[in-house]
Every structure is written in C-alpha cells, then in structure tokens.
Amino acid sequence: MGRRSRLSSAGAQLIVKNIDFLPDIYRQRSAQQQARLWWLTVVVIFGAAIGAASSVQLALRRSVQSQLAELEPQSVSAQQLALQLASVQSQISVPAHSAALYSYLKHPWPRSQVLATLVAPLPATVRLSEIKLSEQASPTASASENAEHSTGNAPADATAAKLSPAESDLAQLRQQQDSLQVVIDVTGFATDVSELHQYINELGRSRLVGSAQLKSLAKLTSDDRTTQTRFDVQLILRPGYGQPGAPDSPTPESLAKQGRQANEESAR
Questions:
Q1: Rounded-to-integer distance, Cα 207 and Cα 65, Å
Q2: What angle do CA 105, 111, 112 make, to 5 degrees?
Q3: Range of the domain at 187
Q4: What residues form DSSP beta bridges with 126?
Q5: 200 — pLDDT class (breaks 50, 70, 90)
Q6: Does the CA dihedral 58-62-67-72 come out positive or negative?
Q7: Are residues 117 and 196 in the same domain?
Q8: How far apart are CA 198 and CA 73, in angstroms?
C-alpha cells in the first residue's frame, strides 16, 4: 500500500510538471523580443560597417583632394607651356615652309653633281661618247595621278585656298615634279667588258642613282683590227628630298656632309 501511494504521488507530480500554465501570448512576446534583439544586432553590425566604409572613403577623398591641390600648379604650368609651344610653332611655321620651298627648288639634282657621278668611277678602259638626260613620267606617280583625277580635285582646291604662299608654291612644284623621274642614257665604248660591268655597279651604288641597267652590248672591229664594245646604259636618278620615294629628311650633319661631298665631286 505504501509503495503504491508513493508511485501515484510521483506520477501526479510528473503530470503537474508537464502542464504549462502560461498563455501563448507570453511565448509569442518572448519570441518577438528575441527576434528584435537579433535584428538590432544585425542593424548595429551593418551600421558599423557602413560607418567604417564612409570613414575610409572620406579619408581617401581628402587624400585625393590634397593631391589635386598639389598638382594644380603643375597643371597650370603645363597648360601655359602648351600655349607657348603652340605660339612658337605658329611663329616658325612660315619660316619652315619657306625653308622647305627653298630646299625643293634644288630639284632635280644639279647637273654638275650628275656629271661628277658619271665621271668619278670611270675606268681608263671605258670611254663615254654621249649622255642624254630626260624627264619621264614615273609609273607609280602616274597611277597616283589617275587615282586623284578619278576622285576629283575639289577637296584639294579647298585645301589650297587655306595655304600660305610658300605652301601653295611648294604644292604646285610637287604636283609638277613629283610625277617625273630623271633618266640618263649613256652611250660609250669599252675595251674591257669586266671593267665596264664594275663601272656600272659603281654607278648603281652612287647616292644620286636609283638604278643602273645595261641596255645593250655590241662588239665593233675597227680597221686596225682592234676590238671595242659599244654599250648603252640607262640610269634613273633617285628622287630628291620631299619627293615620293626619297630618303628621310636630312639632318644638319647629313646636309653638311653632303655639301662637302658635292664640293669634292665638283672639284674632281
């Protein structure tokens, strides 16, 4: 009996412990409070992150502004230098165009230099009998001229109206001379053909000659039974500075060197 009463009292206590006398509204309020705490924690964390990022950006902005303030005088100085450069370029443009026109007026190559080029490497076994110099249309220049005529000259005329007198004269000279190439036909006699070929090779390496080609050879026997070889050679001179296919613009040093060479050739 005593044992059963103890068991029954323990079961009653267990039942009482499992019974929750609090209403559901208290449990909901507790859950809401916990949720609010979590949201508040998240908001605080995000707010701190945003504040830290704003602080970093503000520091970077101040640093950039200080750098811009330091660079502003340099920028103003660079703009002033650019304006001075543009002014100087506008001032030297007219003398530069006049210098280009003066240089172009020396085309074609002086005849004295051409004769010096022909005579300087001439061996004793080769004798020149006739030299003909003529100007012929260049194949590449003819093709470019045809293309220009097919497209029309209105844009070129409009551009020419804006040119200075020196530029306009230079453009007219180039239009007349750039389409031409100087051809030299040389006739002579040689007693040694090997020296003749060497002479032609020397001509081809000259700074004035663009190409040297042997056109014909013919053996001739005179009354005294001496044999000579009649030859015809054609030379095409190089374009001058400023013309299509010409070498690069000369430097003062190269011009001085060419002047010395020209004087030496003329002296020969």
A1: 61
A2: 115
A3: 111-138+179-267
A4: 190
A5: very high
A6: positive
A7: yes
A8: 67
Q: What is the DSSP letter of 248?
A: P
Strand order in the sheet with 227-237: 126-137, 180-190, 227-237, 209-221
Q: What is the pLDDT of residues 214-262, one digit of tens each?
A: 999 998 876 666 788 999 999 999 887 767 776 555 544 554 555 556 5
Kindly state the tokens that stand for 104.
């172009």
Tokens 């003066």 correspond to: 102
pTM of the predicted model, to two decimals?
Answer: 0.51
Q: Do 263 and 187 sit in the same domain of this protein? A: yes
Residue identified by tokens 């068991």 is 7
| Structural domain count of the chain | 2
Angle at 178 between CA 175 and CA 184, to 5 degrees: 140
**Cβ atoms of residues 228 and 220 within 8 Å:** yes
Three-class DSSP category at 78: helix
> What's the rounded Cα separation, in Å, for the pair 97 and 169?
10
For residue 121, the 8-state DSSP code is T
Looking at residue 126, its amino acid is V
- At a CB cut-off of 8 Å and minimum separation 6, what does 206 contact? 117, 121
